[in-house]
Write a structure and sequence with these properties.
Elements lengths: L7 H5 L5 H6 L6 E4 L12 E6 L3 H11 L18 H6 L1 H10 L3 E9 L2 E8 L8 E7 L4 E9 L5 E13 L1 E2 L11 E9 L7 E8 L5 E4 L8 E3 L1 E8 L1 E8 L3 E9 L2
Antiparallel strand pairs: 1-2, 2-13, 3-4, 4-5, 6-7, 7-15, 8-9, 9-14, 10-13, 10-15, 11-12, 11-14
Length: 258
C-alpha cells in the first residue's frame, strides 16, 4: 500500500478524477466491472462502489445490487416492508428483546456512549402499554450505530446495532523531525486477497462528523475522501484509511456476497 505523504490533500491530488468527484459532492461515484478482461461474460459479477452513504443507505444498496443470499427470517407485521438484508441485521436486537421476555420484539432504540437502548414491543400486540426496555453495551472493539427500518407496528424507526471498529492510530512519518505526524493510518483486512472469484459487500464509515481518505488497492477506482466508503460485490483486499492530524476510528462491516 502506498504511504501517504504530507497531508491528505496531497494524497488525493495524485488520484485522477478524485478531487473532481469530491468537489462536485457526488454521492454515488461510479459503476464498473470487476473484470478487466475485454471478452468477459456479460453475466460476470459486477461491483458497485458508493461514497457518503449511511449504514441504512448501504443496506438498501445491498438489497438492490448484492448477490448475497440471505436466509429469510421469521418477520411479523410491518417488518415485511424491510429487505431480507435489513431484517437479518435486526436479529440480534429481536433476540435481546425476546430474551428479556418471550414474545417481545425490538420496536426502536438508540445509542448512547456505545450502549444500546432497545424498546421492545409485545407481538402480537395485546392492548396498549405492553413494552419493555433493554439496555446493553456493545462488545469490545464494536460501536453502536443506527439503522433505519420498519418495526412490527409499521413505523419507520431507528434501531441500534453494534458494528466492529478499526482504530486509525498509526502515525505516519512527519515531513520535518520533531513535528507531529500529519496523517494517521489504519488498515482493515477482514478479507485477505484470495485467488478465487469470491466477492463481498464492504462498508466503512468514519467516526461521526469526520472524513477519511479511503484507499483500496484491488480497485483503485474506488479511492475516495469523505465520511464513508462502500463496495457491493467487491473482490477481497485490504482497505487503508487515513485521517489528518489526530487518531480516530472507523465503523466497519462486511459480508460474503458469493
Amino acid at each position: 500500500m502506498a504511504k501517504p505523504f504530507g497531508t491528505l490533500t496531497a494524497i488525493f491530488l495524485t488520484l485522477l478524477g478524485f478531487a473532481i468527484c469530491k468537489a462536485q459532492n457526488i454521492s454515488i461515484l461510479m459503476y464498473h466491472n470487476v473484470s478487466s478482461s475485454p471478452d468477459q461474460d456479460l453475466s460476470a459479477v459486477k461491483a458497485y462502489f458508493f461514497g457518503n452513504l449511511t449504514f441504512s443507505e448501504f443496506s438498501a444498496k445491498r438489497a438492490l445490487y448484492s448477490k448475497t443470499v440471505i436466509v429469510k427470517r421469521d418477520v411479523v407485521g410491518g417488518e415485511t416492508r424491510n429487505s431480507d438484508i435489513t431484517n437479518e441485521l435486526l436479529q440480534s436486537a429481536h433476540s435481546l428483546c425476546n430474551n428479556r421476555q418471550a414474545g417481545y420484539r425490538a420496536a426502536s432504540g438508540g445509542c448512547w456512549n456505545g450502549i444500546r437502548t432497545l424498546r421492545c414491543q409485545q407481538w402480537p400486540r395485546v392492548g396498549p402499554g405492553r413494552r419493555k426496555t433493554v439496555i446493553k453495551s456493545c462488545d469490545p472493539n464494536t460501536e453502536c450505530t443506527i439503522v433505519m427500518a420498519y418495526n412490527c407496528l409499521s413505523n419507520n424507526v431507528r434501531f441500534p446495532i453494534c458494528l466492529p471498529t478499526i482504530q486509525i492510530d498509526k502515525p505516519q512519518t512527519p515531513k520535518e523531525p520533531g513535528k507531529q505526524p500529519d496523517v494517521y493510518e489504519g488498515s482493515w483486512s477482514p478479507i485477505p486477497y484470495r485467488n478465487d472469484d469470491g466477492t463481498y459487500d464492504i462498508f466503512a464509515k468514519a467516526a461521526d462528523g469526520q472524513d477519511l481518505a479511503f484507499i483500496y488497492p484491488p480497485l483503485p477506482q474506488t479511492n475516495y475522501f469523505g465520511p464513508s466508503w462502500a463496495c457491493v460485490n467487491c473482490h477481497s483486499g485490504t482497505l487503508g484509511m487515513y485521517h489528518e492530524s489526530a487518531s480516530t476510528f472507523a465503523y466497519t462491516y462486511y459480508s460474503p456476497s458469493s
